[in-house]
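Hi X.,

You mentioned you wanted examples for the new student's onboarding notes, showing what a folding record looks like when two proteins sit in one file. Here is a clean example. The first protein comes first, with its sequence line followed by its structure tokens.
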Amino acid sequence: MRALLVSDTHGKIELINQLIDNAHADIVIHAGDFGFYDESSYQYLSSRELLLLITHSPYRKEYSLDKADKITLIEIVKKHNLLGDFDDYLNHKKKFNKPVYAVYGNHEDVGVIKKLKSNSIHNFHLLDEDNIYSINENDELAFRIFGMGGNFLVGQKMLNQPIAGSAGKVWATLHQFGVLYKKFDDKTKPSIFVSHVLVRNHCSHV
């Protein structure tokens, strides 16, 4: 089995299928900042998050952004489709070529993540406190995969109830870790834990 490990695609969803084909991967493990946005995200993202999308894009030098208001930022993001194409996967217009297992990052739309709880996407599996997946090879268990996304913020925010975040920022809570831990009925089986950030804010790609 070939597992492709990726992270921080930030809405460039089609890149995942390209990498699957290039690597001849059987599964994908994605460590967050996936690009969980849809058309409604424009009204919920903060100006700071919109600005980050532009400054981290190839188009950042085309604009003077020092005094840009939110309306201007939205126009730029829309013009260059910087939220990406995840909406097409939510609406079943596109699909992933192989199974994708992903945590959410700290730069995502909480509203879209909530939609994933009740919206089935072909070959997509969300890693959060509600899900532990068994990966089989040759009809035998190869390993189990589970994970927790969002930012790890030590303080009052950790005491919130899931899913926590707003305006394009997401963080993990102690409640979520507790729920996930209780789901392990046999902790001796081979397992992979996927997270987006550690305490020191370094990405952990498995």
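Then the second protein repeats the pattern, sequence line and then tokens:
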Amino acid sequence: MYNFFCGATRRLTHSIAACIAIACGSFGFLSSAQAQTYPDRPVRIVVGFAPGGTNDILARLFAVKLQEKLKQSFVVENKAGANSSIGNDAVAKAKADGYTLLVSSSGGLTTNPVLMKNLPYDPVKDFEPIALLGSFPLVVTVPVTLPVKNFADLVQYSKTSKDGKLDHGTPTTSFVLVAETLTAIAGVKFNHIPYKGSGPVVAGLLGGEIQVGVLDSPAVITQVKAGKLKALAVTTAKRSDALPDVPTIAESGFAGYDAPIWTALMAPKGTPEPVLTRLRLTVAEILKEKETIEKMQVLGLDPGDTDASALTKRIAADISRWSAVAKAANIKPE
């Protein structure tokens, strides 16, 4: 009887193992097949801001390129609000099949966790990194009517303004913290006025609603070159090739200052690895194309890469960096 039960147990164990092996093999086959046919229907790319800012511009550039290469529609959807957390959360909770992607600012992934209470998504646990699309400086921008010529003038003007503070338009939390690092070294403060994207901030500057915008270069470059806005300084260690006459903050008297911003392409956690691989390979091709590089450089963007591991580490490092900035500025999550 003992031998009978042992033999039956072994046969059952072998059967279960065989079933698992078949299931795993089938899953691998399905994943591979999925990658080969992906995408077989339109793909949605969510942007957490209103049209007109860097994330929107990059999303539309890459949507066109992905459509050309993968022979399927890639549709950009703007879901603005709450410092991009509405759009980011929608993607975090979307089906992880590769048909909903996210173009996120570094702020949505690294400063929202620092500045927002009860954030509905986790930037590390809820997303799969596909690519760092690009990095860029922020540009300290003011209306042409403001009587300042450079960043030092702006600092002095702020100190002598009615309440000692200028109104600063903020489309995202990361821009708030960059502005805080600027005002901290300069010994001034800004009144942060929230907007739903860089495009609306630019409109606010043009309309005289606000006096300062520390904004992504692609959002302001056209207005600056047309003489409708003044660019006083860029926040990166080196000048922007797109705005070569605009000095850096370091050149403006604050040595060592460097605060680049970046934009990433992400997918919901659990997206099949073969689908992620296909997207990464395709985006890598796009990032190397001369046309893409030239279009990005005209906007002041440095093309990124598809090193998912490096992007994951950068997200964690930036969260740590901005946490320290917020603590120093005594900014509490709201």
